[in-house]
Amino acid sequence: MQDRVLLISDLHLEEQRQDITEAFTQFLELNRGKCSALYILGDLFEIWIGDDVESLLTTTVADSLREFYTGGSSVYLMHGNRDFLIGESYAAQCGISLVQEYYSLEVQNLEILLLHGDSLCTDDVDYQQFKTMVRDNKWQTEFLKKPIEERVAYASAARKQSREAAKTKSTEIMDVNQTAVKALFNSTQHKYIIHGHTHRPAVHDVSLKQNGSTKTTGKRIVLGDWDKEIWFIEIQNGKIDLRTLPFPQQPLR
Ligand code: MN
């Protein structure tokens, strides 16, 4: 297998966006057997309210991922702020492994720290409070016990509220906090940080204090979302490339 690693995030798959599901399916088919690993850094789905809620979308995605996995590539999934309830049962259905945030990827002599990205948005105080609540184990256990209709209602209310709040929040509040970024770089040995979440694909050089070590600049590479095009990172020959592709013009089948 080629030592080629791919990373994606923020597909926000949902029933109403068949085009994204198609783009994802095709992306997997094109890369099947052509990479050692695929990392999905969160928000694969627009919403997830429990592994027990099945749909054509969830089974299509599971089948495509399993097919990809049987081609010889490992698939790792990190939770995002929308699909943090994906559990071991769905992961097993997909043939993928769930990984925790702040995952250290060591590949081709590169040390890269992977995260979804929302933890860096420390200026968004409302959101951070909400996150603390919903990431609590007890809250999640209670939530998953509720009837499906109740969970659907809660999720759509939360989504509506976050959309409304986003209208009044400045773009700075919604982006990463530079102090948080530097603190993260300084607390880790990693020279590279890769995340998604903000939907602002870019490669940032971050200047850091020389702290006895030789690391003076870090690179923060941000994946894009799949609303209008495919965004991915390809790691090959010791290089990290942020790349984009148009959506497929025609379905494969
Ligand atoms: Mn997100």
Structure report:
The protein has helices at residues 18-31, 56-70, 88-94, 125-134, 137-145, 148-168, 171-174, 178-187; strands at residues 5-8, 37-40, 74-78, 97-99, 103-107, 110-114, 192-195, 202-207, 217-222, 230-236, 239-245. The chain has a six-stranded mixed sheet. The protein has a single domain (4-246), classed as Purple Acid Phosphatase, chain A, domain 2 (4-Layer Sandwich). 29% of the residues are buried. Strand 1 (5-8), helix 1 (18-31) and strand 2 form a beta-alpha-beta unit. The mean pLDDT is 94. The radius of gyration is 18 Å and the shape is globular. It contains eight helices and eleven strands.
End-to-end Cα distance: 27 Å
- Would you tell me the structural class of the helices and strands? alpha/beta
- The radius of gyration computed from the alpha-carbon positions, rounded to a whole number of angstroms, is 18 Å
CATH class: Alpha Beta
Mean pLDDT: 94
How many strands, which pairing sense, and closed or not: the largest β-sheet? Answer: 6 strands, mixed
Helix amount: 25-40%
In the predicted model, the low-confidence regions spanning at least 5 consecutive residues are none
| Overall 3D form | globular
CATH homologous superfamily placement: Metallo-dependent phosphatases
CATH-defined topology: Purple Acid Phosphatase, chain A, domain 2
Strand content: 15-25%
Under the CATH scheme, which architecture would be assigned? 4-Layer Sandwich
